Amino acid sequence: MAKQQVLFHARHREKNRLVVSSPPMNIYSSRPVVLCLSGHDPSGGAGLQADIEALLAQGCHAAPAVTALTVQDTVNVSDFRVLDREWVLAQANVVLNDSRVAAVKLGMLGSLAMVDTVVELLQAHPHLPMICDPVLRAGGGGRLGKDEVGYAMRERLLPLATIATPNLPEARILAELPEGGADQCAEKLLPFVKHLLITGGHGDEHEVHNRLYSRDGLRETYTCQRLPGSYHGSGCTLASALAGRLAQGEQLASAVKSALDYTWRTLRDAEQLGRGQFVPRRLPLDFCS
Questions:
Q1: Is a pLDDT exceeding 80 seen at residue 138?
Q2: pTM
Q3: Is the dihedral of CA 196, 255, 168, 125 positive or negative?
């Protein structure tokens, strides 16, 4: 055997057959698994595809369970259909029984029955951190559930959540304060949820103010430059990135900042793939510095 041969490779002759051996390699993934319960967006801008891409970028594996099918593009949503509870429970339970799930991310639920279904599922797994993105409107303004769905989420799901990530219009619906500011909405919602991140991307100020509130009194404001245009799937991207950071073991305040920074970069690099809103470019962190 030549001395110049690559280290760790050896040649053996076995029954006149040349065998090349090398050190054993771990071929199994050790990425954290995040169960995503959300709707399918055929445009690929929001919903489960946004979850998958954002979680991949955080070094996680997304396990997507479909709660609803939508008819939408980058302009707006025109229709949706919520799946039967048996189908949703079956999808989620096979993942939970097969994989060591590190976190759960909620998106579009669409109906009161689906809220009840997810509550039942989460109550059976109370140890899992849950990130709730209360999706009630598409980026173009179309409804993805009646306001009553939002109220049910507030009463039944938010108490099970680690953190909720509404934008200000969604926070106003949840808090039943049509003209409320972020502080007013937080005061109304904190009795229901431990941590609350109200995003400010729907305003028109020069800077975006994203506000983190905690029941223990923590208040943090994260400010970033407002980018031109509007974006399809920015809320899904943020909530999934946050779920990924928490699944990786990052502490909450740090995870919020990491997820906000990542989301801003995906919006900065967004693409116009259709006739409507820009779609975030959810590349891994190494590619969107």
A1: no
A2: 0.87
A3: negative
